[in-house]
Specification:
The protein is 28% helix and 21% strand. By secondary structure, it is an alpha/beta fold. It has two domains: 5-205, Vaccinia Virus protein VP39 (Rossmann fold), CATH 3.40.50.150; 215-327, no CATH class. It binds S-adenosylmethionine. S-adenosylmethionine binds at residues 12-17, 41, 43-46, 48-49, 65-67, 75-78, 91-94.
């Protein structure tokens, strides 16, 4: 069916979980607390997660996969996952965005899945299907945390900072779920082994812009530049600056630029300096208080092992609005 192995790997998302370090103490405790006696991986691949389950004491394992060559019972788990009694699901499903399927020329093979769901990444369809079981642990993209996917069945979400896969730099997290609906204040958020807080704290900390000040992103004649992504050098994080201070040719800024931008706004030069200073302080403070959980993960870590982050333009706008109001306390604000 597949012309070559590389094409199969891309289409089926065959990136196998060879490293076990994602299994933090609290995740292991959750698995034990389910009292399940079967470990179940509906996207079993090479069976690495089921082997790990065996090492932590499971005697029975059930694996399914769509790829015949892997010798599991064949099942299309993006369409339906059978309920396995007394099991805990331990899996890492395929990840594939609608956009990258099109870009890689493999959309036709996966179109049937996008046609039946409202998600823009197949891992989310996999989560939906896995929730038909009572208990589960899933390794999925970290972008899940800031996605609109309902989180009411989660017990915890854990950001795994070290690079987990040998063949892709995709930033991941691990979700643990049970069969009960919960409010956000019962859902714990961890980074590696450290408990950071609960999901309701992070939802409250989210910055939403009021859009009451004229601001145009990706405008080459703007007065504030933003390097919206951390460099690998911890001393050069995301920051606001004057356009002439950025080490980038700003005439290359496109309408779709998401990593470096210039922002046009109505403000005098001396106000711009103060806004830049205020925005950088407020960003440092925001990052500290939220442990970076609300910033998008970016592929590849910094040299000190921390995950690189990207500041989305809605949050950047909200920070700049606060700075504008600080610098112009008497300004009459209107909606844009
Ligand atoms: C990311 S790999 C993970 C494998 C294994 N869970 C692990 O962590 O090592 C995803 C696996 O899902 C399989 N897969 C992809 N689409 C599938 C589908 N629709 N139904 C069942 N398995 C599928 C792939 O063949 C691949 O083995």
């Amino acid at each position: 069916m597949y012309m070559n192995l590389a094409l199969k790997k891309r289409t089926l998302g065959q990136f196998f979980t060879k490293n076990p370090f994602w299994l933090k103490k609290h995740i292991l405790e959750f698995i034990k607390s389910t009292k399940a006696n079967i470990a179940f991986d509906p996207f079993a691949g090479d069976g690495d997660l089921l082997n790990l389950a065996k090492q932590i004491g499971f005697k029975k394992m059930t694996g399914l996969d769509i790829d015949r060559s892997l010798n599991w019972k064949i099942n299309d788990s993006l369409l339906n996952i059978p309920k396995v009694k007394n099991s805990v699901l331990i899996t890492n499903p395929p990840y594939l965005t609608n956009y990258s399927a099109k870009r890689k020329g493999i959309y036709d093979s996966v179109k049937k899945y996008f046609d039946i769901c409202k998600y823009d990444d197949l891992y989310q369809l996999a989560v939906e299907k896995c929730l038909s079981n009572d208990f589960g642990v899933m390794i999925i993209p970290e972008t899940f945390i800031n996605s609109g996917f309902p989180k009411n069945r989660l017990i915890s979400v854990t950001i795994i900072e070290n690079q987990l896969f040998n063949d892709t730099e995709n930033p991941v997290c691990v979700i643990c779920f049970d069969n009960k609906n919960k409010l956000n204040d019962k859902i714990k958020v961890y980074k590696n082994d450290k408990l950071l807080g609960n999901l309701s704290y992070f939802e409250k900390m989210r910055k939403i812009p009021h859009k009451n000040i004229y601001m145009k992103f990706n405008s080459p004649k703007g007065q504030i530049a933003l390097r919206a992504v951390d460099t690998t050098n911890p001393q050069k994080p995301i920051s606001f600056m004057k356009p002439e201070e950025i080490d980038y040719d700003l005439s290359d800024i496109k309408h779709s630029s998401r990593l470096i931008t210039v922002i046009e706004l109505e403000a005098k030069n001396d106000a711009i300096d103060k806004m830049i200073e205020y925005s950088n302080d407020s960003l440092v403070n925001f990052r500290k208080k939220t442990h970076d959980v609300l910033l998008s993960p970016f592929k590849g870590n910094k040299k000190n092992g921390e995950r690189r982050r990207r500041l989305d333009y809605l949050t950047a706008r909200a920070i700049l609005e606060d700075a504008y109001e600080f610098v112009n306390p008497d300004a009459k604000l209107k909606l844009f």
